[in-house]
Amino acid sequence: MDRNKAYLAAAAAGIPLLFVLWRSARKPSHPPLPPGPPRDPIIGSVRSFPPNRWYESFSEMQKKYGDLIYFDILGTKMLVINSLGVAKDLMETRGTIHSGRPNDVMNISVMGWGWNFVIAQLGQFHTDCRSILKKAMGQQEMEAHRELIKEEATNLIPELMHFEGDPWEIIQPRIGAVTIRLTYGDSVHQEYGKELAKLNEDTLHLVTSVSVQFWLVNFIPALHYLPDWLPLAFKKVGKEGTALQEKVHYWGWELTEKHHKQGIAGPSIALQYIEEGKNTDVARDALGMAYSAGVDNTASALESFISMMLLYPDVQKKAQAELDRVISPGELPEFRDRDALPYLDASWRESQRFNPSTPLGVPHTASQEDVYKGMYIPKGTILTTNIGYMCRDPTIWDEPDVFRPERWLPSHNPNAHLLPDISFVFGFGRRICPGMFLADEVAFTFAAAILQAYDIVPLVGDTLPKEYVYQDAVIRRPEGMRCRFLPRNPLPSRGEYY
After folding, report:
1. Alpha carbon of 368 to those of 82, 334, 371, 381, 382: distances in Å?
2. Of 360, 363, 321, which is closest to residue 342 (Cα–Cα)?
């Protein structure tokens, strides 16, 4: 990161001095900017911007600067939002202004993710992609997918039998199976499921690496047009990223088309659009991102929940006792049982609060200048929501650093009805995750099935930490988490669900 800062500072030094002096001499004609670290001439906030672990750094800076923290990095303006109320004000109440996306040259132009509707600007393409996913994965559509989710939960359970280690290698492909079967069909999953899961994992690793670094091309976009043979880091990473995104973009769809021609394609969202012959390009783009963006986020949330059950065995035992009262031995719980499992539901929500998988969300931008509570927000400002801090904001949560599912239960907390809906971990306003209902249903169903079937315990000889350190990534999961799954109930037969 120090090298990145050096590059940025060197590039900034090339700005004509007279222009800088002229800009500095001008008196601002707008209200004051939000508070933030001191800004140097020319380079702005480069020296004060955290080099890594942005979520933790922004949360620490909140103590000094409050709900809003303003940075100016070589002219790129950034506003970190630490307040849930402010995030809702800007991104929901004033959503027509604050729902854009940054012009990320590295991702969009260098790596070729321009087809990714998640980072696309508002417009017809963005609207069409979201409409396709809402039609396929909206809250009203979940009933149609529950049998598939139940099947994959059933498949997961025997795979965990006496497993020792990091369960990511099991839960991530199994969650991926739900999405692959739903988007591209059973035949594609049976033949190419492992390869598609590996592709997603490789893509996530690269996107994570790119997302936690400064790239000079984002500040000087003209660098993108330099010859590819030049030994520039962003050129090398761009080639690797282009190859991965093209495969994510086209491969699953092309496999479905191939199986359709062969007459072996199973029912899927992709097949529906292929057979109709309408909006196929948009559907292909939307489904490519549904798999790429959704699987790891959901798997990370589930792995975090497993880690909390490992660290808090008393919570695990209470949730299991509730399951035993509601679910018959040898059966697995289903999502429709959720209302009858209030303690498990509270434990799931508390896990999401304690360690949201995307603590900084996906940045918005201001499409025009705005004034909020007397503070000026320039046009083009990147808005980063510190969801992780909001989840532990002491003005919202009593003892926010304590893992306590009971806070969600009216029987234990008379103010439970005043707590915010934890769905804000999926984003805000027009940019809220369109696959949130599928993600929540899959993860909760899998979590309930695991607790019904197994005790989650440490490896023999392992000493558990007080709290796990989480990866420094866009989508985070606990590092070094290892456990065993010891059967506690007769395992259900796979055949009873087919």
Report:
1. 21, 46, 10, 9, 12
2. 321
Could you give the number of structural domains in the chain?
Answer: 1
- Strand, helix or coil for residue 333: coil
* pLDDT per residue as tens digits for the range 173-218: 999 999 999 999 999 999 998 888 888 888 877 877 787 777 888 8
The one-letter code for the residue type at 465 is: P
Q: What is the sign, positive or negative, of the torsion defined by CA atoms of 481, 486, 489, 493?
A: positive
| pTM for this entry | 0.89
For 311, the domain range is: 2-497
pLDDT score, position 180 = 93
Write the single-letter amino acid at 326.
V
User: Shortest CA distance to 111 belongs to which of 286, 284, 241?
Assistant: 241
CATH of the domain at 96: 1.10.630.10
CA distance 378 to 247: 38
> What is the secondary structure of 396-441 as a DSSP string?
TSSSTTS--GGGG-TTT-TTGGGSPPGGGGG--GGGS-TTHHHHHH
> Is 433 marked as a binding-site residue?
yes
Are 294 and 196 a contacting pair, CB within 8 Å?
A: no
Query: What are the tens digits of pLDDT across the range 455-498?
Result: 999 999 999 999 999 988 888 999 999 999 999 866 655 444 32
